[in-house]
Amino acid sequence: MEHAVLEVGLALTLITFAVWLASKLRLSNVPFLILIGMAVGPHAPQFGVFDFRFIETAPLIEFMGRIGILFLLFYLGLESNVSRLIQAGRSIMIGGTIYILINLALGFAYAYLTGFSVKEMLVVGGITTISSSAIVAKILFDYRRTANPETELILGITMYEDVFLAVYLSLLSGIVLSGATSLRGVLSSAGLALGFIVGLLVIGRWATPLLNRLLRISSNEVFIMAVFAGLFLFAGFGETIHVAEAIGALLLGLILGETEHSGRLEKLVVPFRDFFGAIFFFGFGLTVDPFALGGAVWLSLGAALLSLIGVIVAGQLAGRVAGHSGARSFNVGLTLLGRGEFSIIVAKLAQSGGLLPLIQPFAALYVLLLATFAPLLAKESEWIYEFLGKTLKRRKLKKAEITATDAP
Fold first, then answer.
1. I want to staple 174 with a disulfide (CB 3.0 to 4.6 A). Which of 78, 90, 189, 333 is the partner?
2. Could you report the per-residue pLDDT of 207-242, keeping only the tens digit for each?
3. Which CATH number applies to 59-396?
4. Could you give the CA distance from residue 180 to residue 186 in angstroms, rounded to a whole number?
């Protein structure tokens, strides 16, 4: 690895450009990072000492990306609060259940109809179900909708998705990574993974007062080193029992999120989350050969269209349950349409489990489509709702006129 430092510097330069461009366009940086990763890699040229193939540093970038997954899920756990979700109200619980069930069922059905195996169906369902909390938050802030009546429901559903993701990823990793083939083996692996998450959450809740005392450390340096040591130990231990390392990070985040130190932790973790998280998406792009995307194009387009229909239907049902108008319910659905970091994490799990290689380009294109178009559709949600309403109204009137003309 003669030019490893130079290659890493080149990678960080490309990542910086992608993040800068995304901020200028006021869009999520996830699709830009994946695209710039796809643009380079093994198929890219080499100009003197500037090697855009990243062959020597590929293992290092992949490892830094794994660290990025840990920080992304750890921060998600810190922000999620199971107790607050339970107290949030009946409408959020019902709305979140409706949203998850509709989108998960559509993902399963689509994967089944397109010929995926059972394990791959579970992966595709996960890829197409979970919204990107980063994209949702960006839409709400950029379009100044944080004070809208439906925003509480939107944030509640994203929180509900986070809790569902913890359980689903635990079960999925137990099934995919264990290599079990019999029904008994699959159920045993899934049960072990679920027991791991439930057991640690129960222990963590009981140990909250102790953690409050142990983490009363005045030095930020000692504080963050102690927390990061716990983060890597949790993640590594989970991996030894065929639970995705990301689940260990998520669980530790959920446990520490209940302590009095959650606010301090969020501030200290954000720079690490952003830095290593960006490398993760760039590294994922490196693994996708743009010349081999042909087989995934129509598959991704179909899934994106189905997800659009799914979020609109789920948004209407969840919004009406919460007492919102049709227009505001329509906004709920389109705001939750974006897919990003969690879809890619599920896709990487499929890669670790040796599942169909097509899942990687499928996930990349699917995320690129929805991460790009979701903010644009959400911005014009009111206009789209009015346009659809007028179109349907005109069709009803025209149908009524034809019926009246045909009547004797």
1. 189
2. 888 989 999 999 999 999 999 999 998 888 777 766
3. 1.20.1530.20
4. 5
